[in-house]
Amino acid sequence: AEQGLSVLVIGCDQKHDCTRNLRGEVEIPTILDLSREKGIERLGLEGLVGEARGAGGAGGAGRAGGAEGGSRVRLDEVVYKGYRGVFCAECGGPRPGIGCAGRGVIVAIELLKRLNAFEELEPKPEVVIYDVPGDVVCGGFAMPLRGSLADEVFVVTSADYLALYAANNICRGIKEFAAKGGTPLGGFVYNVRGVLDDEAVVRGFAERVGSQVLGCIPNAHQIAEAEIEGRTVIEHAPESEVADLFRELALRLYNSREVSVPEPLPADEMVRVGQEIRKRARERTRERTSERARERTSERSSGKWQDEKSGKKSKII
């Protein structure tokens, strides 16, 4: 958005918090909640958007009114503007204990398509980002991978085993859909979190599945501070190094043209990946323990001094 491009972010997590920091912690109505309110169970998608098509761009001023029990959904009721004019939409999820969250993603994206969101928003979106949970077991969450809804898939992962296990499942889904016109893999982004901070683990995994690592998100305090303030890092600390890192990463992803159909690792290789991660984690823990012990020893040594007048020994710890 800083480069003058029109951006649309579609949150596909049922927690509907993908666009929260773009909106200053102000939640927006989810597509599924509004659809239920407008009577989708009775009208279906066709009846829900029949009179809404061509309603225009997103305003974000709030939810528009309308008669209950079948009011038509308008585009400006489900797409709102956030920081720097980024269009924001949240799919939402089913009522707790009822329905399938993945199915909800299918319905929400189909509704956006029927509302001509990708053509009628002003300015017309030039970049569309689907923020999808790392779970392709459910077909709904995998919808952006299918039918070429997106040009590329970028997987954000840490060096934890469970994160890489999920990443491997995403690769499996990408390969499955590739033969049916699905979206190829653009690469990985290493997100530093968890017990082990080891970029080599993620780079090694990416190479083994036939892809690349395009960038690294550090464990920086500005990220946590921005999260607390309900802002993006670029809005919260625009002059910081980590903000510049996000700008560089965004441009790298936007300009990347190298895609692949990954070759997911079989179960026995994933077991070896897990063993290697545990080995590195143990080594890193021993190193940190030894380092802390050396620091404590140094503090004790430097904290001892002789009071020349009293002859008493004092210790500062």
Description of the molecule:
This protein has 317 residues and is an alpha/beta fold. The protein has a domain of 145 residues: P-loop containing nucleotide triphosphate hydrolases (Rossmann fold, 3-Layer(aba) Sandwich), CATH 3.40.50. 41% of the residues lie in helices and 12% in strands. It contains ten helices and nine strands. The strands form three sheets. A four-stranded mixed sheet has the order 2-3-1-4, with no helix packed on it.
Query: What would the principal axes of the Cα set say about the shape?
Result: globular
Largest sheet: 4 strands, mixed
* Highest-level CATH class of the domain at 1-145: Alpha Beta
The number of distinct helices, counting runs of at least 4 residues, comes to 10
Average of pLDDT:
84
Write the layout of secondary structure elements.
Layout lengths: L6 E5 L19 H8 L1 H10 L30 E2 L5 E4 L10 H14 L2 H4 L6 E5 L21 E5 L3 H18 L6 E7 L7 H10 L4 E5 L3 H9 L3 H4 L4 H15 L11 H37 E3 L6 E3 L2
Parallel strand pairs: 1-3, 1-4, 5-6, 6-7
Antiparallel strand pairs: 2-3, 8-9
